[in-house]
Amino acid sequence: MVTQNRGVVKLAVGKAGVKPIPIPTLRPDYILVKTIAVALNPTDWQTVDENFTFEAKQTLLGCDAAGIVVEVGENVTKDFKPGDRVAGMAHGGNDVQPEDGTFANFILLKGDITIRIPDNISFEEASTLSGGIATVALCLYRDLEYPLPTFPLAKSPAKSNEDSHFLFIYGGSTATGTLAIQFAKLSGLTVITTASPHNFELLKKLGADHVFDYRDPQCGSKISSLTPNTLHHVLDTIATPTSAQICADALSSSPGGLYVNLMDTPNPRQDVKSIFPLGYTVMGEEFVIEGVTWPASKEDFELTKKFISLTEKLLEAEVIKGHPVSLRVGGLDGVLGGMQELKEGKVSGVKLVYRVDS
């Protein structure tokens, strides 16, 4: 086996670089993977800039990747073997486990929540999936308690109360948004979403019932009128004060509103419950973020195992599609420029992906 490894690491607050790193030591619940493609997420650059817990450990970055199994840990129950095509997520920028991350030639992935890539899916497309899939599992099926889709396909009924069938997904053209739209439709929901007009067609093809321009000053009130005043559930994939206000305007004036958001952004309405799902809980392991210890969640791990199994079937049947890919050049070195593009807000409706196997 090749014994050289390179990775994109956090060198200092606000600075990342590519350098030689050790091949990670296989842990019992993990698989060792030779990376073929990596996909970028906003959290990658945010982790570089974050200075709350930085301890100069030069942590590996990256959360999403696809590749080929090299070795399987003894406690992995999924029947992986060397040579299998897989896609998974890791906790990049992890001070507790600095070797965790995906922006490297050889990486570790948690075995039982790693996707076996169907033959009809490329490494590039597969690399975009895992972080979004884990987030959707938590948001829709843990926090909002929607019924899981079934396979073979049969639309699941939404919750029994008459007004629960509406779901507003703010930021439908994000990688999490496009996946959430598709799964929400399979769970029998009426999906309302927002995007820039140039992404409207994409979201409608994925199943969105109604798409609004988030720049419209009346966006929230228009959604409230559409529902009408019966919207109780929101998933905000952008989670800024501006998006939170639009969501507040859209939600019903009746009690019981749930605002699930990906950045721990408070909702301006006191009568709305804000929920912050953090995708790393799906690992089933304790971790620390910004000085806060998150306990291990066996429940999130087991939910994700079940959800990954379902997702594999839906991908193979071409029921679920990955986010549109923008394949870039430059390998691991190119990743640095991609993170800067994300930071500057220059990416919309696509996922930046880099091949790292050459």
Automatic annotation (TrEMBL):
Domain spans labelled Enoyl reductase (ER): 17-353
PANTHER family, A to Z: HYPOTHETICAL OXIDOREDUCTASE (EUROFUNG), ZINC-TYPE ALCOHOL DEHYDROGENASE-LIKE PROTEIN C2E1P3.01
GO molecular function terms attached to this record: oxidoreductase activity, acting on NAD(P)H
A Pfam family that the UniProt record links to this protein: ADH_zinc_N
Family listed: Belongs to the zinc-containing alcohol dehydrogenase family.
InterPro entries: ADH-like_C (IPR013149), ADH-like_N (IPR013154), ER (IPR020843), GroES-like_sf (IPR011032), NAD(P)-bd_dom_sf (IPR036291), Trans-enoyl_RdTase-like (IPR047122)
SUPFAM superfamilies: GroES-like, NAD(P)-binding Rossmann-fold domains
Source species of the chain: Cudoniella acicularis
Keywords: Oxidoreductase
Protein name per UniProt: Enoyl reductase (ER) domain-containing protein
Family matches, as CDD domains: enoyl_reductase_like
